Amino acid sequence: MKFIIALLLFFILFSLCWPLAIVIFFFLIFFWLILLPFQILGFTLALVFKIIAGILMLPFKLLGM
Questions:
Q1: Distance between CA 36 and CA 48 in Å, rounded?
Q2: Quick one: how far is CA 39 from the chain centroid?
Q3: Where are the alpha helices (DSSP H) in the chain?
Q4: Which end of the chain is more exposed for a tag (fewer CB within 10 A), N or C?
């Protein structure tokens, strides 16, 4: 739903002031490319913590606690 509203607002902005809409569009792509390594890092850290938690909880799962 948020995507549809954002797309609708973008098209309204594009119809009112298309140069500003194009600048914002390219700025958002550039901003996403800058933030992409941090998203990958966050995903990797979450996965590492899940693996560590699984290793630490394995004895309790084997004992049925």
A1: 18
A2: 6
A3: 2-16, 18-63
A4: N
CB 10 within 8 A of CB 21: yes
Q: Please list, residue by residue across 15-49, b when 16 or more beta carbons sit within 10 angstroms of its beta carbon and e when fewer do.
A: eeeeeebeeeeeeeeeeeeeeeeeeeeeeeeeeee
Tokens matching residue 7: 């797309």
| Angle, helices 2-16/18-63, rounded to nearest 10 degrees | 170
- Per-residue pLDDT at 64: 83
Mean pLDDT for 16-43 is: 93
C-beta separation of 24 from 13 below 8 A: yes
Which pLDDT score, from 0 to 100, does residue 18 have?
A: 87
CB contact at 8 A, 14 and 21: yes
